[in-house]
Each structure stands twice: as structure tokens, then as C-alpha cells.
Specification:
Blueprint: H1 5-15, H2 20-26, E1 31-35, H3 37-48, E2 57-61, H4 68-90, H5 96-101, H6 104-111, H7 120-125, E3 129-132, E4 135-138, H8 140-155
Antiparallel strand pairs: 1-2, 3-4
Length: 156
């Protein structure tokens, strides 16, 4: 994903294609914008003379490559985390509006203390962690969510 102004400026300068300023920030994960090389060369020649040719800009949706076993593991993990989220909502461990906002990454981070720093702000916002004397600690809700996570992984 290219959403930094510096990256976008570099790409526009290389290609000469100004429309990429609007297109690149709107791309979703696993999407790519492509222009044929001949069209870039033509664009580079003609824009110097202030002519603006039509170019073909393709937006491609890419699928990540995983071996089949890895894909099954990922699907299984996602299913487990969805069940955990349902359990959190059903048991009202945290307010429903916050429980609905939980992402798989939040649950993974909570399950692996070394990963918490990646999702620290979200976990704090969700009320699952807090700071005590400058250290990250689990809130009561965080402990309860972690129990649900561990139970599901022990059973699966």
C-alpha cells in the first residue's frame, strides 16, 4: 500500500501519471495499479509537450500465495477467533460496542504478550490493557478475554 505522500510523489514522478495521486491511497490490501510500459513511455514524451494521452490504468486484485496447509491453518485460526469474539459478546465481558470492534490482530496480540506493542493503542481503547507505573498490564476484562482465548486454543 502506498499512502505516504513521499512514496506517491516518487511514483508519480517516475510514471508521469498524475491520476495515481488519487488512485494509490484508495487501494485496498492486495490491490495494485498497473500501467503498461509503452503507455508510460508515451506519457513521458507527450506530457512534456502538454498533451495528455489516454492511458489504461488497471487495478488488479491480488491473492496472497500460501500453501494449502498454511491456508487451512489460517482459516482454522480465523474461525477460532470469530468464536472467541462471539463468546466475548455473548458473555458481555466488555461493552458490546467495543467487543464488536475487536479484530483478530487484537486477540492475537493479547494472546502473545510480545505482540501487544503492535496493537497497544487499540487494546487500551478497548479497555483490555492499561498502564500501571509505566508497565502494560491486563485489565480485569483483558484477563477474562485472555481466559476465553486460552480455553478455545486448549480445546481446539
Amino acid at each position: 500500500m502506498n499512502d505516504s505522500e513521499k512514496d506517491i510523489d516518487s511514483i508519480v514522478n517516475i510514471t508521469g501519471c498524475e491520476i495515481l495521486r488519487q488512485v494509490l491511497p484508495s487501494l485496498k490490501q492486495f490491490e495494485a495499479a498497473t500501467i503498461r510500459k509503452q503507455e508510460i513511455e508515451e506519457l513521458m514524451k507527450t506530457t512534456r509537450g502538454k498533451l495528455y494521452p489516454t492511458i489504461t490504468l488497471l487495478i488488479a486484485s491480488l491473492k496472497p500465495y500460501f500453501k494449502e496447509e498454511k491456508l487451512k491453518d489460517i482459516k482454522r485460526e480465523e474461525e477460532i477467533f470469530l468464536k472467541i469474539k462471539e463468546e466475548i459478546i455473548k458473555n458481555k465481558i466488555i461493552p458490546i460496542d467495543k467487543a464488536r470492534m475487536i479484530k483478530i490482530e487484537d486477540l492475537k496480540a493479547l494472546n502473545n504478550i510480545n505482540e501487544i506493542s503492535k496493537e497497544e493503542e487499540r487494546l487500551k481503547e478497548l479497555g483490555l490493557i492499561r498502564y500501571i507505573e509505566g508497565k502494560i498490564t491486563l485489565t480485569h476484562s483483558g484477563v477474562e478475554v485472555l481466559k476465553v482465548i486460552r480455553e478455545y486454543f486448549r480445546g481446539n
